[in-house]
Amino acid sequence: MRGEASVLHADLDAFYASVEQRDAPALRGRPVIVGGGVVLAASYEAKARGVRTAMGGRQARDLCPDAVIVPPRMEAYSAASRDVFAIFRDTTPLVEGLSIDEAFLEVGGLRRIAGTPEQIAARLRERVRVEVGLPISVGVARTKFLAKVASAVSKPDGLLVVEPDREEEFLLPLPVERLWGVGAVTAEKLHRLGIRTVGQLAELESAAAERLLGKAAGAHLHALARLRDPRPVDTTRRRGSIGSQRALGTRPRTPDELDLFLTQIIDRLARRLREHDRVCRTVVLRLRFGDFTRATRSHTVRFPTDRTALLLTVARGLLEAAQPDIAARGITLIGVSLSQLGRVDSIQPELPIEWDDGARLDTVLDAVRDRFGAASVARATQLGRDPGWSTPLLPEHE
């Protein structure tokens, strides 16, 4: 006996672009691209013309010359996300956030007080539309995987329920790209083998899938294709790291430009640590080169810290070590993750405790930004230069 379809996957539609259209009525119904050098988000009007996230700005403008290009407003997106997640948590205490714009909700125990899962999903969509002014798509199914697929199929601004007795009817005809974890490379490999639908993958034996795709990936995808996904909605998972990244486009970047981007990223991440009373020990630098290869470099400090100056010094050392590769291959993305997180109150301080100038500076900057906004004050290295912005690394979430 299969369980009830009680897992909701709620996913805001073209989130950044929808916030821009909400806040500027003149943009509604028009193709909107967020970000100029690299597409950070595109409205459905722009997507219909072939524009996609992470596409170069020039290619996007060639595909959609009448698009309205707007700079990103991270504070507006974060505020909208908080408002939406407040509705999620008002709907059910069992919420597992996946990113700034999507979450799983378990509503199976609410039938007597709130109605069926479909009724709850419909009410949630209406609340997000009325209270936050944004479209949201919701999939309802027995498992997280099927709920996520259902929300994707229902887009834009849709609601789709996959009842347990028609799961195979829904899933098996879909292209393999719908499986959670199938990217372009895996899809191409499957296509070369004549496997284009989920049903065709499900027909394979598990051992054959593992042999073709690798043991871990093959087992995972084969299980999903055969409707096996035992993971419950997880509300207790703690974040193991936080991170930000910036796409740089394809033009050459000077060391000074890269240092500016790195400073912006570290400044933001260190502030997030302090906002949540967290410290970290490991700094991880992530780079994507012009030839699409990637590199990861890391350094672990002796004592946990949330100090901007120390984290920036470590990150600069990692970036300096990577300069020969950058000079030879170019760079298209720079990102930083802070890991081995802990709580401030769990750290045994060394004596004597010294409040150095760096700590006082961090405290003052945090206070000014809390009162007047993130853009109200900057470090000297950023004066007169493109303020830029960084996007969260997924699947990290608040």
From TrEMBL:
Q: Which GO terms describe its cellular component?
A: cytosol
Sequence positions that bind Mg(2+) = D11, D101
The record's catalysed reaction(s) read: DNA(n) + a 2'-deoxyribonucleoside 5'-triphosphate = DNA(n+1) + diphosphate
Alphabetically sorted, this entry's keywords are: Cytoplasm, DNA damage, DNA repair, DNA replication, DNA-binding, DNA-directed DNA polymerase, Magnesium, Metal-binding, Mutator protein, Nucleotidyltransferase, Transferase
UmuC domain sequence ranges:
7-183
Annotated GO MF terms: damaged DNA binding; DNA-directed DNA polymerase activity; magnesium ion binding
Q: What is its main location?
A: cytoplasm
| Compositionally skewed regions (Basic and acidic residues) per UniProt | 228-237
Positions of the record's site feature: Substrate discrimination: Y16
Q: Which cofactor does it need?
A: Mg(2+)
Pfam families linked to this entry: IMS, IMS_C, IMS_HHH
Q: How is the cofactor bound?
A: Binds 2 magnesium ions per subunit.
Superkingdom in the source lineage: Bacteria
Task: Spell out the subcellular localization from the entry.
Answer: Cytoplasm
SUPFAM superfamilies per record:
DNA/RNA polymerases (SSF56672), Lesion bypass DNA polymerase (Y-family), little finger domain (SSF100879)
- Active-site residues, record numbering mapped to chain: E102
- EC number in record: 2.7.7.7
The EC category is: transferase
Q: Family, per the entry?
A: Belongs to the DNA polymerase type-Y family.
- Assembly with partners or alone: Monomer.
Q: What is this protein called?
A: DNA polymerase IV
| Organism annotation | Microbacterium rhizomatis
Biological classification of the source = Bacteria, Bacillati, Actinomycetota, Actinomycetes, Micrococcales
Q: Encoded by which gene?
A: dinB
